[in-house]
Specification:
Number of strands: 0
Number of helices: 15
CATH architecture of the largest domain: Orthogonal Bundle
Order of helices and strands: HHHHHHHHHHHHHHH
Helix content: 55-70%
Largest sheet: none
Number of domains: 2
CATH superfamily of the largest domain: UbiA prenyltransferase
Oligomer: single chain
CATH topology of the largest domain: Tetracycline Repressor, domain 2
Strand content: under 5%
Structural class: mainly alpha
């Protein structure tokens, strides 16, 4: 029974908080299309979608932790993971992966074909990131970009809960992707600083052979600026009033980078970001202000984009 517990831990249910990245896609699609379905029906679809995403993401975590077990032994904290400490069997890991993946895709099929296809993309992205011969997590910059592509995929999941006949703006997807890349870049910077031994860090994560603290910070800046650029295009096209809140959005990025500078930073494990309570309160305030601005017209916002 204790061994069974260790297999379940590989699914990392505490990482479910990351599926909140589905919510913006759901809300944006809802505000654009104003669907005729009842709130109770949309709530049911949303809950079913979250359950499906949980199983798909857990399948990715299972394969990730199993294939990383020989590398995690060099990490000061991850060396205590069940896959490192206990003698788990590969055949049961594979069976667990298949069961979780099958459950996630089966539930996704109840929502729509586009939702099922996007769920499959999420599953494939986990294989590309973790499994040889590709295993993109071993290559600097590709590791960040292929891990953070889960962000726009999650946005698509939220979008397809509302609309199966349309596709979100490319500018929104690219902004979401680069925003996720910023989070992953800061995560790697925090890990690199936490381990504080380049040789040991490269044994834990192969991509660290090509990274340095400076490269990680500069690349994180690139991701943040790219996210702002594509986000600005989206806002200018769909709701210019939100541009007035841009300094607050920028503050979220700056604050998160500050968190990444802390010793043993929470940025190493974004699923624990709830421990940064003041930061979350600020994000909540920005979300509330953004929702309010969606329903008002501010002439000043147009002056930012037009002459005369």
């Amino acid at each position: 029974m204790n061994t069974f517990k260790y297999y379940l831990k590989l699914a990392r249910p505490h990482h479910s908080l990351k599926n909140l990245f589905i919510v913006p896609g759901f809300l944006i699609a809802y505000l654009i299309f104003l669907p005729q379905e009842t709130i109770s029906h949309l709530t049911m679809i949303f809950c079913i979608g979250l359950i499906s995403a949980f199983f798909i993401c857990s399948a990715n975590y299972i394969i990730n932790e199993w294939l990383d077990r020989h590398f995690d032994q060099f990490h000061p904290v991850k060396k205590n993971r069940p896959s490192v400490v206990h003698q788990l069997q590969g055949k049961y890991i594979f069976l667990e992966y298949i069961l979780f993946a099958f459950a996630g895709l089966s539930i996704a099929a109840f929502i729509s074909i586009p939702y099922l296809m996007t769920s499959s993309m999420l599953l494939v992205s986990g294989l590309i990131y973790n499994v040889e011969p590709l295993r993109t997590k071993n290559y600097a910059y590709f590791d960040v970009l292929t891990e953070s592509i889960n962000n726009p995929i999650r946005l698509l999941l939220g979008w397809f809960m509302i609309s199966s006949a349309s596709f979100p703006p490319l500018s929104l997807l690219l902004s979401y992707w680069m925003g996720g890349a910023f989070l992953m870049g800061v995560k790697r910077y925090s890990e690199f600083q936490f381990i504080n031994e380049p040789a040991l860090a490269s044994l834990y994560r192969a991509s660290f052979r090509r990274y340095s603290s400076e490269k990680l910070l500069v690349s994180s800046l690139f991701y943040a600026v790219s996210a702002a650029f594509f986000g600005g295009i989206f806002l200018a096209q769909y709701k210019t009033e939100l541009i007035l809140l841009f300094p607050l959005y920028a503050m979220i990025f700056a604050w998160y980078l500050y968190i990444g500078f802390k010793p043993n930073s929470i940025a190493q494990s974004p699923e624990y970001i709830y421990k940064e309570r003041l930061f979350l309160w600020f994000i909540g305030l920005v979300i509330i202000l953004s929702m309010l601005v969606l329903f008002i017209h501010i002439p000043l916002s147009e002056a930012l984009l037009h002459h005369g």
